[in-house]
Write a structure and sequence with these properties.
0% strand, mainly alpha, 82% helix, Growth Hormone, Chain: A, 20 helices, globular, 438 residues
Length: 438
Protein backbone atom coordinates (compact mmCIF):
# COMPACT_ATOMS: atom_id res chain seq x y z
CA UNK A 1 0.00 0.00 0.00
CA UNK A 2 1.56 3.31 -1.06
CA UNK A 3 1.87 6.18 1.37
CA UNK A 4 0.09 9.46 0.78
CA UNK A 5 1.95 12.57 -0.41
CA UNK A 6 1.36 14.22 2.97
CA UNK A 7 2.91 11.30 4.87
CA UNK A 8 5.92 11.24 2.55
CA UNK A 9 6.38 14.98 3.07
CA UNK A 10 6.17 14.53 6.83
CA UNK A 11 8.76 11.73 6.72
CA UNK A 12 11.15 13.79 4.64
CA UNK A 13 10.89 16.85 6.90
CA UNK A 14 13.23 15.49 9.62
CA UNK A 15 15.74 14.48 6.94
CA UNK A 16 15.66 17.98 5.48
CA UNK A 17 16.02 19.51 8.93
CA UNK A 18 18.96 17.22 9.74
CA UNK A 19 20.64 18.11 6.45
CA UNK A 20 20.16 21.83 7.12
CA UNK A 21 21.57 21.41 10.63
CA UNK A 22 24.61 19.52 9.33
CA UNK A 23 25.21 22.15 6.66
CA UNK A 24 25.11 24.87 9.29
CA UNK A 25 27.50 22.91 11.52
CA UNK A 26 29.93 22.33 8.65
CA UNK A 27 29.88 26.02 7.79
CA UNK A 28 30.33 27.03 11.43
CA UNK A 29 33.34 24.73 11.87
CA UNK A 30 34.85 25.99 8.62
CA UNK A 31 34.21 29.72 8.95
CA UNK A 32 35.59 29.89 12.50
CA UNK A 33 38.89 28.26 11.65
CA UNK A 34 39.14 30.32 8.45
CA UNK A 35 38.78 33.55 10.45
CA UNK A 36 41.09 32.45 13.25
CA UNK A 37 43.79 31.33 10.84
CA UNK A 38 43.35 34.51 8.82
CA UNK A 39 44.16 36.40 12.00
CA UNK A 40 47.13 34.16 12.73
CA UNK A 41 48.55 34.36 9.20
CA UNK A 42 48.14 38.11 9.04
CA UNK A 43 50.71 38.29 11.79
CA UNK A 44 52.94 35.67 10.17
CA UNK A 45 53.05 37.64 6.92
CA UNK A 46 53.60 40.92 8.73
CA UNK A 47 56.42 39.33 10.75
CA UNK A 48 58.19 38.39 7.54
CA UNK A 49 57.71 41.82 5.96
CA UNK A 50 57.40 44.67 8.44
CA UNK A 51 57.12 43.80 12.17
CA UNK A 52 60.88 43.98 12.79
CA UNK A 53 61.48 47.54 11.51
CA UNK A 54 58.25 48.90 13.03
CA UNK A 55 58.45 47.45 16.54
CA UNK A 56 62.13 46.91 17.29
CA UNK A 57 65.04 49.35 17.66
CA UNK A 58 66.85 50.13 14.46
CA UNK A 59 69.81 47.83 13.89
CA UNK A 60 70.76 45.17 11.42
CA UNK A 61 68.02 43.75 9.22
CA UNK A 62 68.90 40.22 10.39
CA UNK A 63 68.50 41.18 14.06
CA UNK A 64 65.12 42.77 13.34
CA UNK A 65 63.97 39.68 11.42
CA UNK A 66 65.01 37.39 14.26
CA UNK A 67 63.20 39.61 16.79
CA UNK A 68 60.07 39.50 14.66
CA UNK A 69 60.26 35.70 14.45
CA UNK A 70 60.64 35.50 18.25
CA UNK A 71 57.31 37.34 18.65
CA UNK A 72 55.90 34.98 16.03
CA UNK A 73 56.89 32.04 18.26
CA UNK A 74 55.28 33.51 21.38
CA UNK A 75 51.83 32.57 20.11
CA UNK A 76 52.83 28.93 19.79
CA UNK A 77 53.85 28.90 23.44
CA UNK A 78 50.45 30.39 24.30
CA UNK A 79 48.48 27.94 22.18
CA UNK A 80 48.76 24.92 24.54
CA UNK A 81 47.70 27.24 27.38
CA UNK A 82 44.67 28.16 25.29
CA UNK A 83 43.95 24.50 24.67
CA UNK A 84 44.18 23.80 28.43
CA UNK A 85 41.87 26.73 29.23
CA UNK A 86 39.26 26.37 26.52
CA UNK A 87 39.54 22.58 26.54
CA UNK A 88 38.60 22.58 30.21
CA UNK A 89 35.42 24.53 29.59
CA UNK A 90 34.73 22.75 26.30
CA UNK A 91 34.75 19.39 28.12
CA UNK A 92 32.90 20.78 31.14
CA UNK A 93 30.21 23.14 29.79
CA UNK A 94 30.08 22.39 26.07
CA UNK A 95 31.61 22.96 22.65
CA UNK A 96 29.41 25.83 21.43
CA UNK A 97 29.98 28.49 24.10
CA UNK A 98 33.69 27.74 24.24
CA UNK A 99 34.05 28.21 20.48
CA UNK A 100 32.34 31.60 20.70
CA UNK A 101 34.74 32.70 23.46
CA UNK A 102 37.87 31.55 21.59
CA UNK A 103 36.82 33.48 18.49
CA UNK A 104 36.32 36.64 20.55
CA UNK A 105 39.74 36.39 22.20
CA UNK A 106 41.47 35.91 18.87
CA UNK A 107 39.58 38.67 17.09
CA UNK A 108 40.09 41.30 19.78
CA UNK A 109 43.82 40.55 20.02
CA UNK A 110 44.28 40.76 16.25
CA UNK A 111 42.34 43.99 15.87
CA UNK A 112 44.30 45.67 18.66
CA UNK A 113 47.63 44.76 17.02
CA UNK A 114 46.44 46.91 14.12
CA UNK A 115 46.31 50.02 16.33
CA UNK A 116 49.43 49.59 18.50
CA UNK A 117 51.90 52.44 17.78
CA UNK A 118 55.40 51.49 16.63
CA UNK A 119 58.73 51.79 18.45
CA UNK A 120 59.38 55.30 17.08
CA UNK A 121 56.18 56.53 18.77
CA UNK A 122 56.14 54.84 22.21
CA UNK A 123 59.55 53.20 22.54
CA UNK A 124 59.95 49.90 24.35
CA UNK A 125 56.25 49.81 25.24
CA UNK A 126 55.52 48.96 21.58
CA UNK A 127 57.17 45.50 21.50
CA UNK A 128 55.78 44.76 24.98
CA UNK A 129 52.21 45.43 23.85
CA UNK A 130 52.86 43.49 20.67
CA UNK A 131 54.02 40.45 22.63
CA UNK A 132 50.97 40.60 24.94
CA UNK A 133 48.56 40.74 22.02
CA UNK A 134 50.46 38.04 20.15
CA UNK A 135 50.12 35.90 23.28
CA UNK A 136 46.37 36.61 23.17
CA UNK A 137 46.25 35.43 19.57
CA UNK A 138 47.85 32.18 20.64
CA UNK A 139 45.38 31.71 23.51
CA UNK A 140 42.43 32.18 21.14
CA UNK A 141 43.72 29.88 18.42
CA UNK A 142 44.71 27.30 21.03
CA UNK A 143 41.05 26.95 21.97
CA UNK A 144 39.69 27.19 18.44
CA UNK A 145 40.89 24.20 16.48
CA UNK A 146 39.96 21.43 18.91
CA UNK A 147 36.42 22.75 19.29
CA UNK A 148 35.93 23.21 15.55
CA UNK A 149 37.18 19.69 14.85
CA UNK A 150 34.84 18.26 17.50
CA UNK A 151 31.92 20.28 16.19
CA UNK A 152 32.41 18.65 12.79
CA UNK A 153 33.38 15.10 13.76
CA UNK A 154 30.90 14.64 16.63
CA UNK A 155 28.10 15.50 14.19
CA UNK A 156 29.44 13.35 11.33
CA UNK A 157 27.49 10.33 10.01
CA UNK A 158 29.07 6.89 10.18
CA UNK A 159 32.01 6.36 7.85
CA UNK A 160 32.37 10.05 6.98
CA UNK A 161 34.24 11.54 9.93
CA UNK A 162 37.33 12.14 7.83
CA UNK A 163 35.25 14.07 5.30
CA UNK A 164 33.42 16.14 7.94
CA UNK A 165 36.66 16.71 9.84
CA UNK A 166 38.12 18.10 6.63
CA UNK A 167 36.08 21.31 6.79
CA UNK A 168 37.95 22.82 9.77
CA UNK A 169 41.13 21.82 7.91
CA UNK A 170 40.06 23.92 4.92
CA UNK A 171 39.97 26.96 7.18
CA UNK A 172 43.76 27.47 7.11
CA UNK A 173 43.86 27.45 3.30
CA UNK A 174 41.07 29.99 2.99
CA UNK A 175 42.42 32.08 5.86
CA UNK A 176 45.85 32.09 4.27
CA UNK A 177 44.46 33.06 0.86
CA UNK A 178 42.45 35.88 2.41
CA UNK A 179 45.42 37.13 4.43
CA UNK A 180 48.02 36.92 1.69
CA UNK A 181 45.54 38.08 -0.94
CA UNK A 182 44.91 41.23 1.06
CA UNK A 183 48.64 41.83 1.58
CA UNK A 184 49.15 41.17 -2.13
CA UNK A 185 46.51 43.78 -3.02
CA UNK A 186 48.11 46.29 -0.68
CA UNK A 187 51.53 45.62 -2.20
CA UNK A 188 50.11 46.40 -5.65
CA UNK A 189 48.30 49.58 -4.65
CA UNK A 190 50.57 51.19 -2.04
CA UNK A 191 54.14 52.40 -2.13
CA UNK A 192 56.67 50.83 0.23
CA UNK A 193 56.54 53.92 2.41
CA UNK A 194 52.74 53.82 2.63
CA UNK A 195 52.74 50.09 3.37
CA UNK A 196 55.28 50.44 6.18
CA UNK A 197 53.59 53.54 7.58
CA UNK A 198 49.97 52.33 7.78
CA UNK A 199 49.08 49.84 5.04
CA UNK A 200 50.22 46.76 6.98
CA UNK A 201 47.65 47.59 9.67
CA UNK A 202 44.65 47.20 7.36
CA UNK A 203 44.51 43.35 7.41
CA UNK A 204 44.53 43.42 11.23
CA UNK A 205 41.62 45.86 11.36
CA UNK A 206 39.60 43.83 8.83
CA UNK A 207 39.58 41.05 11.44
CA UNK A 208 36.88 42.88 13.43
CA UNK A 209 34.39 42.51 10.56
CA UNK A 210 35.23 38.84 10.01
CA UNK A 211 34.88 38.00 13.70
CA UNK A 212 31.41 39.57 13.77
CA UNK A 213 30.43 37.25 10.89
CA UNK A 214 31.87 34.22 12.68
CA UNK A 215 30.04 35.02 15.90
CA UNK A 216 26.75 35.38 14.05
CA UNK A 217 27.15 31.89 12.57
CA UNK A 218 28.35 30.17 15.72
CA UNK A 219 25.65 31.56 17.98
CA UNK A 220 23.08 29.71 15.85
CA UNK A 221 24.50 26.19 16.19
CA UNK A 222 23.43 23.50 18.68
CA UNK A 223 25.56 21.45 21.07
CA UNK A 224 27.05 18.23 19.67
CA UNK A 225 25.25 14.88 20.24
CA UNK A 226 28.37 13.29 21.76
CA UNK A 227 28.64 15.98 24.44
CA UNK A 228 24.91 15.79 25.20
CA UNK A 229 25.22 12.02 25.61
CA UNK A 230 28.22 12.44 27.94
CA UNK A 231 26.20 14.86 30.10
CA UNK A 232 23.29 12.43 30.27
CA UNK A 233 25.65 9.61 31.27
CA UNK A 234 27.33 11.92 33.82
CA UNK A 235 30.75 11.20 32.35
CA UNK A 236 32.21 14.68 32.69
CA UNK A 237 35.27 14.96 34.92
CA UNK A 238 36.07 17.87 37.22
CA UNK A 239 39.52 18.59 35.76
CA UNK A 240 39.83 17.21 32.21
CA UNK A 241 43.53 18.10 31.98
CA UNK A 242 44.35 16.02 35.07
CA UNK A 243 42.50 13.04 33.59
CA UNK A 244 44.28 13.57 30.27
CA UNK A 245 47.73 13.58 31.86
CA UNK A 246 46.98 10.61 34.11
CA UNK A 247 45.29 8.32 31.59
CA UNK A 248 45.80 9.60 28.04
CA UNK A 249 49.32 11.01 27.91
CA UNK A 250 50.50 8.52 25.26
CA UNK A 251 47.96 9.43 22.53
CA UNK A 252 48.53 13.09 23.39
CA UNK A 253 52.27 12.83 22.72
CA UNK A 254 51.82 10.68 19.61
CA UNK A 255 49.24 13.12 18.26
CA UNK A 256 51.62 16.02 18.90
CA UNK A 257 54.45 14.22 17.08
CA UNK A 258 52.12 13.50 14.15
CA UNK A 259 51.28 17.22 13.85
CA UNK A 260 54.91 18.36 13.64
CA UNK A 261 55.22 17.72 9.90
CA UNK A 262 52.16 19.84 9.12
CA UNK A 263 53.44 22.86 11.00
CA UNK A 264 56.99 22.58 9.73
CA UNK A 265 55.96 22.27 6.09
CA UNK A 266 53.64 25.22 6.34
CA UNK A 267 55.71 27.73 8.25
CA UNK A 268 59.00 26.95 6.52
CA UNK A 269 57.34 27.32 3.11
CA UNK A 270 55.47 30.50 4.04
CA UNK A 271 57.05 32.56 6.81
CA UNK A 272 60.71 31.59 6.33
CA UNK A 273 60.54 31.30 2.55
CA UNK A 274 58.76 34.65 2.23
CA UNK A 275 61.42 36.37 4.32
CA UNK A 276 64.24 34.57 2.48
CA UNK A 277 62.72 35.19 -0.93
CA UNK A 278 62.32 38.93 -0.39
CA UNK A 279 65.53 39.67 1.56
CA UNK A 280 68.02 37.19 0.05
CA UNK A 281 66.65 36.23 -3.37
CA UNK A 282 65.41 39.79 -3.95
CA UNK A 283 61.96 38.90 -5.20
CA UNK A 284 59.50 41.75 -4.91
CA UNK A 285 57.04 41.44 -2.05
CA UNK A 286 54.06 41.20 -4.40
CA UNK A 287 55.62 38.55 -6.67
CA UNK A 288 56.46 36.22 -3.77
CA UNK A 289 53.04 36.72 -2.18
CA UNK A 290 51.53 35.91 -5.56
CA UNK A 291 53.48 32.64 -5.72
CA UNK A 292 52.30 31.74 -2.22
CA UNK A 293 48.68 32.42 -3.13
CA UNK A 294 49.11 30.16 -6.17
CA UNK A 295 50.74 27.39 -4.12
CA UNK A 296 48.19 27.41 -1.30
CA UNK A 297 45.46 26.57 -3.82
CA UNK A 298 47.13 23.16 -4.10
CA UNK A 299 47.03 22.82 -0.33
CA UNK A 300 43.28 23.44 -0.51
CA UNK A 301 42.91 20.88 -3.32
CA UNK A 302 44.90 18.26 -1.41
CA UNK A 303 42.73 18.62 1.70
CA UNK A 304 39.49 16.98 0.44
CA UNK A 305 41.49 14.40 -1.52
CA UNK A 306 43.35 13.31 1.61
CA UNK A 307 40.22 13.41 3.78
CA UNK A 308 38.34 11.16 1.33
CA UNK A 309 41.27 8.74 1.21
CA UNK A 310 41.46 8.62 5.02
CA UNK A 311 37.82 7.53 5.20
CA UNK A 312 38.38 4.90 2.50
CA UNK A 313 41.81 3.51 3.43
CA UNK A 314 42.37 4.66 7.02
CA UNK A 315 44.15 7.58 8.67
CA UNK A 316 47.55 5.88 9.05
CA UNK A 317 48.18 4.79 5.44
CA UNK A 318 47.40 8.27 4.11
CA UNK A 319 49.60 9.96 6.71
CA UNK A 320 52.50 7.54 6.22
CA UNK A 321 52.50 8.18 2.46
CA UNK A 322 52.30 11.96 2.92
CA UNK A 323 55.01 12.07 5.57
CA UNK A 324 57.38 9.90 3.51
CA UNK A 325 56.98 12.37 0.63
CA UNK A 326 57.62 15.25 3.05
CA UNK A 327 60.90 13.66 4.16
CA UNK A 328 62.01 13.52 0.54
CA UNK A 329 60.86 17.09 -0.11
CA UNK A 330 63.49 18.45 2.26
CA UNK A 331 66.14 17.46 -0.28
CA UNK A 332 64.42 19.60 -2.92
CA UNK A 333 64.67 22.83 -0.95
CA UNK A 334 68.20 23.93 -1.91
CA UNK A 335 67.95 23.18 -5.64
CA UNK A 336 64.45 24.63 -6.04
CA UNK A 337 64.12 27.51 -3.57
CA UNK A 338 67.83 28.31 -3.79
CA UNK A 339 67.69 28.57 -7.58
CA UNK A 340 66.12 32.02 -7.45
CA UNK A 341 64.10 31.04 -10.53
CA UNK A 342 60.45 31.99 -10.22
CA UNK A 343 59.10 28.75 -11.79
CA UNK A 344 61.33 26.56 -9.58
CA UNK A 345 60.56 28.54 -6.42
CA UNK A 346 56.84 28.32 -7.20
CA UNK A 347 57.24 24.56 -7.74
CA UNK A 348 58.92 24.18 -4.34
CA UNK A 349 56.18 26.15 -2.58
CA UNK A 350 53.50 24.14 -4.37
CA UNK A 351 55.07 20.80 -3.39
CA UNK A 352 55.42 21.77 0.26
CA UNK A 353 51.92 23.18 0.61
CA UNK A 354 50.35 20.26 -1.29
CA UNK A 355 52.04 17.91 1.18
CA UNK A 356 50.84 20.12 4.03
CA UNK A 357 47.27 19.54 2.81
CA UNK A 358 47.82 15.79 2.50
CA UNK A 359 49.19 15.43 6.04
CA UNK A 360 46.90 18.01 7.66
CA UNK A 361 43.47 16.87 6.41
CA UNK A 362 43.25 13.53 8.32
CA UNK A 363 44.10 15.28 11.59
CA UNK A 364 40.61 16.77 11.80
CA UNK A 365 39.29 13.27 12.46
CA UNK A 366 42.38 11.51 13.82
CA UNK A 367 43.07 13.68 16.87
CA UNK A 368 39.45 13.66 18.19
CA UNK A 369 39.32 9.89 17.58
CA UNK A 370 42.27 9.35 19.92
CA UNK A 371 40.31 10.48 23.01
CA UNK A 372 37.06 9.67 24.90
CA UNK A 373 34.34 12.33 25.00
CA UNK A 374 35.04 13.64 28.51
CA UNK A 375 38.61 14.74 27.61
CA UNK A 376 38.27 15.02 23.82
CA UNK A 377 38.28 18.82 23.53
CA UNK A 378 41.28 19.08 25.86
CA UNK A 379 43.15 16.13 24.35
CA UNK A 380 42.71 17.06 20.70
CA UNK A 381 43.58 20.69 21.39
CA UNK A 382 46.64 19.93 23.50
CA UNK A 383 48.03 17.42 20.98
CA UNK A 384 47.43 19.85 18.13
CA UNK A 385 49.10 22.77 19.87
CA UNK A 386 52.01 20.84 21.39
CA UNK A 387 52.75 19.87 17.82
CA UNK A 388 52.79 23.59 17.08
CA UNK A 389 55.48 24.23 19.68
CA UNK A 390 57.60 21.41 18.28
CA UNK A 391 56.98 22.09 14.60
CA UNK A 392 56.33 25.81 14.18
CA UNK A 393 57.15 28.05 17.12
CA UNK A 394 60.89 28.11 16.46
CA UNK A 395 60.87 26.83 12.87
CA UNK A 396 61.31 30.22 11.13
CA UNK A 397 63.92 31.26 13.72
CA UNK A 398 65.93 28.03 13.38
CA UNK A 399 65.58 28.13 9.61
CA UNK A 400 66.90 31.70 9.56
CA UNK A 401 69.94 30.67 11.60
CA UNK A 402 70.56 27.54 9.51
CA UNK A 403 70.30 29.49 6.27
CA UNK A 404 72.69 32.14 7.55
CA UNK A 405 75.33 29.68 8.78
CA UNK A 406 74.90 26.55 6.65
CA UNK A 407 72.69 27.38 3.68
CA UNK A 408 69.38 26.08 2.43
CA UNK A 409 70.51 22.45 2.43
CA UNK A 410 70.56 22.61 6.22
CA UNK A 411 67.05 24.06 6.28
CA UNK A 412 65.91 21.21 4.02
CA UNK A 413 67.48 18.70 6.41
CA UNK A 414 65.53 20.35 9.22
CA UNK A 415 62.28 19.80 7.28
CA UNK A 416 63.16 16.13 6.69
CA UNK A 417 64.04 15.58 10.35
CA UNK A 418 60.76 17.13 11.52
CA UNK A 419 58.84 14.89 9.11
CA UNK A 420 60.74 11.83 10.38
CA UNK A 421 59.60 12.66 13.94
CA UNK A 422 56.00 12.70 12.72
CA UNK A 423 56.49 9.37 10.99
CA UNK A 424 57.56 7.81 14.29
CA UNK A 425 54.44 9.22 15.98
CA UNK A 426 52.08 7.86 13.32
CA UNK A 427 53.71 4.43 13.21
CA UNK A 428 53.34 4.09 17.00
CA UNK A 429 49.64 5.00 17.16
CA UNK A 430 46.61 2.82 16.48
CA UNK A 431 44.32 3.16 13.48
CA UNK A 432 41.33 5.27 14.54
CA UNK A 433 38.99 5.24 11.51
CA UNK A 434 36.46 2.92 13.19
CA UNK A 435 36.65 4.47 16.66
CA UNK A 436 33.37 5.35 18.39
CA UNK A 437 32.94 9.00 19.41
CA UNK A 438 29.73 8.70 21.46
Amino acid sequence: MSSSPSSRAAASAPDAAAQTSRSRIIFASFIGTAIEFYDFYVYATAAALVIGPVFFPHGSATAQALSAFVTFGIAFVARPIGSFLFGHFGDRIGRKSTLVASLLVMGISTTLIGVVPGYDAIGSLAPILLCILRFGQGIGLGGEWGGAALLATENAPAGRRGWFGMFPQLGPSVGFLASNGLFFGLALTLSDAQFRSWGWRVPFLVSAVLVALGLYVRLKIAETPAFKAAVERRERVRVPLASLVAHHWRPTLLGAFAMVVCYTLFYISTVFSLSYGVSTLHFSRQSFLGMLCFAVVFMALATPLSAWASDRYGRKPVLIAGIAAAILSGFAMAPLLGSGSMPLVALFLTIELFLMGITFAPMGALLPELFPTHVRYTGAGVAYNLGGILGASVAPYIAQLLAAHGGLAWVGAYVSAAAALSLVGVLCMRETRDAKLM
